Each structure stands twice: as structure tokens, then as C-alpha cells.
Amino acid sequence: xxxxxxxxxxxxxxxxxxxxxxxxxxxxxxxxxxxxxxxxxxxxxxxxxxxxxxxxxxxxxxxxxxxxxxxxxxxxxxxxxxxxxxxxxxxxxxxxxxxxxxxxxxxxxxxxxxxxxxxxxxxxxxxxxxxxxxxxxxxxxxxxxxxxxxxxxxxxxxxxxxxxxxxxxxxxxxxxxxxxxxxxxxxxxxxxxxxxxxxxxxxxxxxxxxxxxxxxxxxxxxxxxxxxxxxxxxxxxxxxxxxxxxxxxxxxxxxxxxxxxxxxxxxxxxxxxxxxxxxxxxxxxxxxxxxxxxxxxxxxxxxxxxxxxxxxxxxxxxxxxxxxxxxxxxxxxxxxxxxxxxxxxxxxxxxxxxxxxxxxxxxxxxxxxxxxxxxxxxxxxxxxxxxxxxxxxxxxxxxxxxxxxxxxxxxxxxxxxxxxxxxxxxxxxxxxxxxxxxxxxxxxxxxxxxxxxxxxxxxxxxxxxxxxxxxxxxxxxxxxxxxxxxxxxxxxxxxxxxxxxxxxxxxxxxxxxxxxxxxxxxxxxxxxxxxxxxxxxxxxxxxxxxxxxxxxxxxxxxxxxxxxxxxxxxxxxxxxxxxxxxxxxxxxxxxxxxxxxxxxxxxxxxxxxxxxxxxxxxxxxxxxxxxxxxxxxxxxxxx
Length: 639
Hints:
By secondary structure, the protein is α/β, with parallel strands linked by helices. Helix content is 29%, strand content 22%.
């Protein structure tokens, strides 16, 4: 009934052959008030379940014995709240505790000696627990795979079979396929995992990319194993969703290191991730923690987990993630809901509004807005929706391996490397497309005028060759933070940087001091400089070659002013001169005001403009001006 049209550009969700705007709602359980409100708003697909339920109410209860009563109960709550609607329930494939106790040799064994305890144990460091199966366990994949088969057969033989249109396969911390234990206890070195890593040394000082690549392969094969079961048992009729391909932090062991492989896998239809936790406050970008351009290029649908808290939400006490980042007023709540929708609309992706704390949408004004936005989303599906970016940004999952090899004083490696980059890109007046670096081999990359490389510390020979082929046509390539430093031998050599960037004069210093990044200041409350050991000098360099331009900077947080200057130099169209959050496609434009004032919007060519936030028709024009309040979000359809 529902499937992803992977041949369409961009990929789109179809229901019986008709395009559907992919707006969903998540809540656990789906309460009648919220289910009916979202149903009345037009939402057709719902999703639910969370990780704690998988341990409290497992469906695999003993050898070859299954109990689906809890799952049935959650479905029944959904059906009461949303009669006639559809669902993609989150299904966890984590091993139940009786299994973990029966097969300790199949469980995680951490490189750092660690107490093993259950999910949700009070007073322990890891809320998700440390007693878990190894992702490399063949017995776990076999036993939980059989349990998943039995669950799917049960669903398809139930009276609610017609309402289930897919499954969201979940495991790992919070169901997001982050490996168990986090960065503190380091990776799983159990016997099953050693069968994957083979002869690669697991001791921290000797662990190389070969080891990590094999380590990530275990999670990839597990995900595909379960997704393939879904496809087999449903003859390909169920959608398969998975959390994966996150823009990752410095904890390499919990990263999504097999992102390219997952995107290439035909068994997966939907990739999902929550958006930025660091830049989601009113006035921030709320940009995706994923790679929407790569997801689309591989024929999959990306769905943003829109879990911004409204002022009506029950408060989450975690100060690191949510302090001063949630909406504190009804007006800001409304504007964040619009921002989430605008990000999705302009990138041709989906979203599910998420009520993770309760009561988030218990407001008539918010629900009327969601109904209005959904209706406009449906209308947009009948129009061409191509992206119009002239800037492409590339991120290398492998580059994260090299970050822990550098010692920082005053900032975490991830803080230093990436989040500010995307915040400033969203406020530089022109849209950009975000890719995993291996997609630089795609032919459509030739259309971009500016290419920005976020963490390209050790590009593969294939990537280097593709980059060399793009050094032409007046294009500008922007590099940061030791781009190309590591060669195929994993040895740092500034000659590798010269070969990649074309720039000369680099030297490797024992230590280099840098100003603190904004993100480190947000997290640790400091503006003190940080030191990189070793570091690269000079801090900045540039050169105009005959057919291309090369720009290098130490700072992955390229300023808005620098970005705008390079855009002007290369003829990239500027839609907005003020430093507000801007997202644009050929069919839609969103502005989220980082500061109050008049915004002067200018398109490359005239379009018929509709302000969908007010319903006002502006007629056919190329430029227009509007007064914005602080944090106001407006979205325009461009016909």
C-alpha cells in the first residue's frame, strides 16, 4: 500500500501510487487526545514504542516461545486513538535478559573493565545499561531473527494487519544503533566481535581504521539481517526504517561508521535521525544530524525526528541537551514547529512530530498550525521539488578515526570539528547540500560551484581522484583542519595536504593554539583557546589556479562572512543578506529569524509567491521585503 518511489528525484512516499507528504506523529503510547488531534490534522501514519518497553515487555520470552500481548496492546491503543490510520511501529531486536544470562559468551565484553547491569538500573552511569548482546553475535541474530519472523507472522494474521505498513528496526543505545557502553568503556572485544575484527589489534594505541571498519561491519550486517527478514516475511510490502548515518561525535566506538553501506542497501527504505541538539533553540538552525543529499541520492527517504520541546511539554531535566534550547513561550513553540516543517519541505524529506515528554501538542493553536502545514505539504507534492543549491558540503566518516589521535586542551574533538559549520552554513544566505564524502563520485556533483570539505583528514584514493577531476570550471574547493594530512600509510605528512589542496608551505608543529570554538563554549562555558597536538601551520592559505580556487582554514567553523565572500566570488546566488536561518529549494523557501528586522528576499528569477504561514498570495515577483519578529518563521511556496 505504501512504498518509496526510489526512481523519482527526489524519492517520495506513495500510497497506492499517489504521492503522500511524509508527516508522521510519534508518541508512546499513542494517547486518544493526541491521536485524534493528529488524525483530524490529516496525519495518516503514526509510530510508537521505546527502548525501555523492549526490556520490560519482551516478545521473546523463552527458547522458541513468544508473547506478543504487549505489542498487541500498544497497537490496540493506537487503533482506538486513530481509527482507520496506519502505523510503522518501532520494533526492538535487543536480546531479552533471560537470553543474556543464558549466553554470557554472546554478550558485550568491554575493553575497559565494566560492571554489567540492566537497562534503567538506578544510580548507574549508563541509563541504557551495560548488559547487552554483541552486535557480532551470530546466535543473537539467529534467535532474535526467528523471534522477529514470528512477530511479523503474528501481525499479518491479526485483525489489525491492515493498519501496519512497515517496521522501524531498532537496537543499540536508545534504539539508534549506537554501540552499547558509549565512549567511556570503549568497544566490544567479545569473542563474537573478535571474529569480525580478526587479526586487527584492539588495544587503543594500536587500533587502526581496518579494525574500526570491521567493527562497524558487525552493526551493518545485523541491521541488514533484520531488515531482510522484514522484506522476506512481507514479500517486500512493508517499509523498513532505521536510525542511522548520524553526523557523529568524537566517540568513534558509538559512531555510524557503516553509513555508506547502509545507504546502498536495498533492504532499507527510510533513514531517520533527530536534528541538532546543540543548535535547536529559537533562532538556531535546527539542522539535520544526517546527510539528506546522500540519502536521496541512494533512493531512500529521510525522516527528521522532530523532537523539539514546546512550552507545553513536561520538562526534561537534562541540562546538557535541553537547557535553554526548548521553546519557553507559545509563540516560540509555534515557530519551532514551523521551522521543523520548513526544513523538511525545502529538503524534500519527511518528519515525525515527537511528543517525548508528554503534553507537547496540547494546544489548539499548535494543532491548527500542524493541520495547515500538512495541507500545504500535500499540495507541494503535486509540484516539481528539485533542490537548487550551488554549494555542496562533504563529510567523511573515516575522518573521525583520526580525531582521537589528536590531543585537545579545552575542547572535545567533535566540538572543534563540525556543529558550528552547519549552523553558519544555514545563515550564509544560500542553500547547501550535505553529502557523505564517497558521494563526490556522483555525476551530479559537477553542478556545484563551491565544494566544502569538513573533516577530510584521510581521503581514499578514489575520493582524491574524484576531487582532482573537479578542480576546474572556476570551482572553489574549501578545506579545513589538516585536510589530506594522512596518506594510505596512516602517517601524517604535510606533503599529502599539498597534493590534495594544491597549496604549499604547510608544516607540522608539535602544538598549535586555536581560539575556542563556539560549541565548546556552549558546552563547557569557556572561551579559552584550545591546543592541537600536533597542529598544522599556517592557519589559513588560499590560491587562485588557472581553472579553480583553493581555500584552506584551520577552523572548521568557517565564519558567515567568509562563506558569503566565497559565494560572491563564485557567483553563488544570495537569497538573503541578513544572518538568519535560510533553507531553499526550487519550490519552497523558509526563513527563521535569528534577529528581528526587515528581511529582503531575492530569487534568481521571478516566481509566484505564496506565504503559507499567512495564506497571503504575493503574486509573481523576484524580490520582496518583510518585517520579521525575533525567532519568527515564515515559509513561502515558489511556483
